Amino acid sequence: MSDAIKRAVASYAAAWAERDPVRRADLLASAVTDDVRILIGAGKREIRGRAALEAEIVDLQRRVPVVRVRVTSGIDVQGNLCRFTGVAEGPQGQIGAEASDACECDASGRIRLLFTFAGAALPPADGS
């Protein structure tokens, strides 16, 4: 399962920069379930379903020249869960903050639930 999850994460990252709609759809089909749910910023935004995710990617590509999304960490897999960090890059370099993602995957390794947080580092403990 670990290798399947790592392939899904790689396909998910590649889909964000893929401009060919057929190739992007293939990448997403291998990366996420039809009913994928993505929560961004502790649930402040939500994307539901592969079609909505693809629409989000197309919208981002219209607004920002994404050259690639690069996974900046190892992909830590534990059972059907994984976590990793990544960053979007444009022609001039990094776009926005590095993100920290945590996923739950289905039996085939595709992402079915993804939590994404801007900023790869966790905040310091508050001592409580």
Write the layout of secondary structure elements.
Elements: H1 2-15, H2 21-31, E1 32-40, E2 45-48, H3 50-63, E3 68-71, E4 76-78, E5 81-90, E6 93-105, E7 111-118
Parallel strand pairs: 1-7
Antiparallel strand pairs: 1-2, 3-5, 4-5, 5-6, 6-7
How many structural domains can be distinguished in the coordinates? 1
**Biggest β-sheet strands, sense, barrel:** 7 strands, mixed
Radius of gyration: 14 Å
- Mean pLDDT, nearest integer? 91
Structural class assignment: alpha+beta
- What fraction of the residues are assigned to beta strands by DSSP? 35-45%
Shape: globular
Task: Report on this structure.
The chain has one domain: Roll (Nuclear Transport Factor 2, Chain: A), CATH 3.10.450.50. It is 30% helix and 40% strand. Strand 4 and strand 5 form a beta hairpin. With 128 residues, it is of the alpha+beta class. The chain starts with a helix and ends in a 10-residue tail after the last strand. Strands 1, 2, 3, 4, 5, 6 and 7 form a seven-stranded mixed β-sheet that branches. The protein has helices spanning 2-15, 21-31, 50-63, and strands spanning 32-40, 45-48, 68-71, 76-78, 81-90, 93-105, 111-118.
Concise account of the structure shown:
Helix content is 30%, strand content 40%. The chain is globular. It has 128 residues and is an alpha+beta fold.
